[in-house]
Amino acid sequence: MIEGSKICGVKDTDTLNFILNFPHPPNFIGFICNYPKSSRYVSINDLKKLLNVKKNKSEFVAVLVKPSYEILEKIKSLPFDYYQLYDCTPDEIKIIKQKYKKKIITALTIKDKSDVDNYKLFYDVTDIYLFDSKGYEKSQGFNHNLIKNIKLNKKLMLAGNIKFDDNLKKYEKIADYLDLSGGLETSGLKDISKIEIFLNNFNKVKNET
Prior knowledge:
By secondary structure, this protein is an alpha/beta fold. The chain is 26% helix and 23% strand.
């Protein structure tokens, strides 16, 4: 059953305030902290300004691709609840989790079944698993059937080319959380109208289950 959502790649105050003050906001809001290749990347100085808000009902997620000690030190005082980590080993995640006292979303990028099976390596350090495509900033998809029958005993978040107006019920038996970024954009920018449609649809589906 889908119980929550995440909107990722927020980088401007107007969009963030709209999401935070929406009648039924997402559970998580993600910010790209150290991946300049992404058009959604936010510099440290801009992050400090952007995150100077009341989070209300949402939790903040720092999205990090193999983060250096330097970037981890720079963001440690920012109001993040979770670190979403790409391209880290279980040992690296364990060190980050212990040092910075953050909950962890382990992001696994999927192309085939061997990529899915890697989840077993991260069980002890993960609070939520995120199964994403290999596209990173490109909003690509992957075959969701690859994860349809795995039993995690942990929460599963799904990303990868999910659209703002998708039939969300098709994800009910796969994921606990849905993570959207590019699917909420028009010409590379977050689109308030798409965010509104998605959050209203999500709330409707959630209340039906």
